[in-house]
Structure formats: C-alpha cells, structure tokens
Amino acid sequence: MKEQFKKILDQAANIWKKMSVVQKIMSAAIAVVVIAAFIMLSVYNSSPSMISVLTSPVKDENLLNTISIRMDEEGVEHTISADGMIFVKDLRTAQRVVSILAREDLIPKTASPWDVFKMDRWTVTDFERNVNLRRAITLNLQAHLESLEDIDSADISLVLPENELFAEDQKKVSASIIITPRPGSDIRENRKKIEGIVKLVKFAVEGLDDDYITITDHQGHILNDFTGLAEFDRLELTKREMKIKSDLEKKLSGAIKLSLRQIFGQDRVEIINLDIDLDMGKKKIETEEHFPVTMKADNPSTPFDETEVVPSITISKNLVDESFRGTGFNPEGPPGQEGQTPPAYKDLEGMVGEYKRNNVIQNEVVNTKNITEEKSPWGIKRITVGVAIDGIWRWEYDDSGLVKLNKDGSIVRNYENISDVDLAKAKTLVEHAIGFNKIRGDSVTVQSLQFDRSKQFQLEDQKYRNRMRVRQMIIYSIIGTLLLIVFFIVFRIVIKTIERKRKLREEELARQHQAMREAALRSAEEDGVSVEMSVEDRARIEMQENAINMAREHPEDVAQLIRTWLLEE
Questions:
Q1: Is the predicted pLDDT of residue 348 greater than 70, yes or no?
Q2: pLDDT digits (tens, 9 = 90+) for 233-288
Q3: Are 223 and 188 in contact (CB under 8 A)?
C-alpha cells in the first residue's frame, strides 16, 4: 500500500514538473476553488437549521420592527430575512414566540391559522379531513399552550359543528380548555395572561367567539370569567391611581425640602401637608379651526412679503331685488256696469303704495382644520401645600463671653422669628417647585412656627455641662500636675543641696585626715624615724602625683573631666 501511494506521488511529481507555468497556475487555482467549495459546503451543512415563526412574510416594516424588539425583550435569538421572514432556532421556540405575538396582538391580520400553526391541507374525504383538522388544531394549540412558562400541561376539547345551509341554523364553534399552572405562577390572578390565551385560541380556531371559550384550572375554577373581576379591576385601578398620586407628592415634597433646607437648615423645614388632586378621567377634545385662504404665496427671493390672503371665497351667490309702487290694476266689470270690487278696496284706489324686497344668499368657503386631542391618562386638578419653618434659637452670653445659665443649669436661649420677607421668598420657591397655577386653584401656605425642641435642648444642655466638666477636670489636672512638678523640683533641689553639703563635709574631713597624716609623715622623716607606708597610701600618693603631672601637661583635658564630674553630680 505504501509503495502504491509513493508511486502515485512520484507520478504526480513528474506530471507537475512537465507542466508549464501557465498550467501550474491554472491547476493551483482549480485546487483552491475546489477546497473553498468543500469548506463552504461543510460550513453550510454544519450550520443549525432555522425554523420560521410564520410561513408568510411580514410586509409591514413597523410591525416587523415591533416584533423584533419584543423578541429581543424575551431574549429570543432570531434572524429576519430580506423578504420579512422571521426564523428561530427550534420548533418549541417558534411556538413560544407565536404565543407571545398572539397575546400582544402582533400577528399580522393577513396571516391565517394555517400559517400560524403550519398545517397542510389533506386531499381525503370530508370526514377524514374534518377529523384530521380537529386533531391538528387541538395538538398544535395544546403544544402552544404548554410552551408557555406559566402552564405545566393543557387539555383541549374543540367542537367544530358541520356547516349548515342557512346561517341561522349554523351552530357556534366552542372550546373548553383545562390548564395546570406551574408552581409559583400568577396566571390565575393575571388577567392579561388569560386574555392572551383567549386571543391565541380565537386565532387558532376560526369562527370562535369569546363567549364560547371556557378556560379552567385543574381545580375547576373558571379563569376567563372577567365579569367577576370588575370589582378587582376597579381596586387595581384605584391602587395605581393612588400610587401615581403618592409618587407625585413624594417628588414635589423632595423638591420643596431640597430647596428650603439648603437655605434655612435641615431641621428647620417641615411640610405639614401636600395634597395633589388628580383627574384620572379620560378626555378627548375635538376642535375645528378656520384660517384665511392664501391667494398668493410669498416669494422667498424678494425682501418683502407678497402673501395675499382673503377670509373666504364665494362659491355661489343668489341675489333677488324686488320693488313695487302704487295699488296696481283693479279689473272692472263690462262697459256700462259697476265692477265687483268691494267698497273697502275701492276706496284705496288712487293711493300710492311702495314695496321692496332684497334677498341675498351667498355661500362662502374657508380653510378648516380638524384637531383631535386626547388628554393624558391623568392630570393635576389642584395642589395644596402647607410648609412650616422654624425660627432661630440663639444662646445668651455675658460680658465676659461666657454662656448664661438658668438656675437649673440649662442654657439661656432667645427665639427669633423668620421675617416676612424671607417667608415671602420661601413661598415663591415653593410655588416654583410645584408649578403653581392660580387658575386651577392651587394653594401654598408658608408660616413661621416654633418647633418643639425640648429633647434637643436637653441634649445640648447635657452636652454643654459635660463639656464644662471635662474642661474643669482638665484645668484641675493641669494645676495639680504643675504643683507636683514644682514640688518635685523643690524636693530635688533640697536633696541635692543636702547631698552636696554632706560631700563637702566628707571631703573636708578627708582633707583634714590627709593633712594630719602628711604632717605626721613629715615630722617622722624629720626625726629620722623610718615609717613604713601602707599600700593604699602609696597608691593614693602616686595617683595624686600623676594627676598633678597630667594637669600640668594637659590642663584642658583635666578641666573637661572636672566639668563632666560636676554635671554628673
């Protein structure tokens, strides 16, 4: 085997040597293309297969972006193709995404249940088709429900009646679902999740209405009976309103305290009352505005305004003008006979009368603009704020600068009220902090009140007394220490004086004994008596002679030695 492989390599090497440079370049290029093709094929085969969430693409770009953002919030990895198809990694993830999109009303209206549940139509008998249809819808719907995090298992029963000839005879489609919530899930109390399941079931089963869907838990409690949750929703709405009110009051209270306590002090400002009356009613305002008709627009290239406007344009006009003067013609009878005109009217003949009638109907057209404004979910109706600011407590001092004390040992204090000018400025700050609006009836009151500071004063008095006690102890300690130092110095001086006198007396006695001994020796020498000196006397005499000689030869060293002895003593 090795010999054959070596033979093949030798043949390939011989062929490569016989090839020209162009042939070698072409062969190398072909080899590179083949290797690249194999690599791309292996990468494509090794890449994970993707599952489409919907079999039909999403054409609406805004809806596609909303779906992508919602999937990112759920932490679902997905890709979107150029034509609007959404792909995820596996079928279970696709089912979970479809359930989320159905709950959030994000499934396109053009998508059909077949697209959502990825079902195929069968070319079999009607009975088998209906059975398979019911089974497919049930299984897919069950898989979707069980893919939710809050549902452990689901049991679904669908009733799909046969199509009747007349609409009034057609029976309704119904569905009953029993779910087993997972431990710790709040699906029983969370209305939004139940509504999402209802929407998912309605979208899965064509012709299914809310009234014909029953969702219960494994204990038999009906979960989609929202009529009994009206009172619960009202309480929840009230709680949310109260939370909004509380948050606003805390925000305004913090703004007021921050602005005033930096000026007057941390413990001198208190908000007695802060109440915000909110309007939680929803309002929709529709208005119609009329503005002039522009006959000639302004030319931006000219320095002056050429705009020509008219209030309105006449589109139709009906003008009637009638005028009549005199009694008119009164017909008479045949010649020679009196007419039939009554005497009352006959007397009016020859009198001059006058009649005028002006009728102008003119239809004008103007530019109109309809504005529909919907107010925010809540609005502030009225704000009431009451703020109390404490005055300043000052200590009294005597002429020597010491704090005055009462008979009980407490500090003498004087209270100073806040001036009216400062109160007015503080009121202005509070009004700016809350956005004061006089039209809606806001009320701000800022008063100077004396706070109860009994405990604070007791602590201050106790601290002051403790500080004075410590001060006195320090003074007494210093005085006592100074007295001890003085006593020690005096005692030391006395001891040294006594010691010095004792040494002087001993030296004097030693000097006298030495003088007496020397005198005795000299007298003995003069008398020729041989006196034998002791070893100690001989050593002392030698030492004296050495000291005398050293003093003569090195007087400075001897003086320094004497100074050292004196300092040591």
A1: no
A2: 666 667 777 888 888 888 888 888 887 887 887 778 888 778 887 776 666 667 77
A3: yes
Written as one string, the DSSP assignment of 203-214 is: HHSTTEEEEEEE
Total-model pTM: 0.37
> 286-339, pLDDT tens digit by residue?
777 776 777 778 788 888 787 887 777 777 777 877 776 655 555 555 665 665
**Spatial contact of 97 and 53, defined as CB atoms under 8 Å apart:** yes
Q: Answer for the pair 182, 191: CB distance below 8 angstroms, yes or no.
A: no
Long-range contacts: 483-488, Cβ < 8 Å, 24+?
A: none
Q: How far apart are CA 128 and CA 126, in angstroms?
A: 6
DSSP letters for 69-118: HHHHHTT---EE-TTS-EEESSHHHHHHHHHHHHHTT-S-TT--HHHHHT
Residue 309's SS3 state is strand
Give yes or no for a contact between 164 and 170, defined as CB atoms under 8 angstroms apart. Answer: yes
User: Which residues make beta-bridge pairs with 7?
Assistant: none
Rounded to whole angstroms, how far apart are CA atoms 479 and 488? Answer: 14
Count CB neighbours of 436 within 10 A: 16
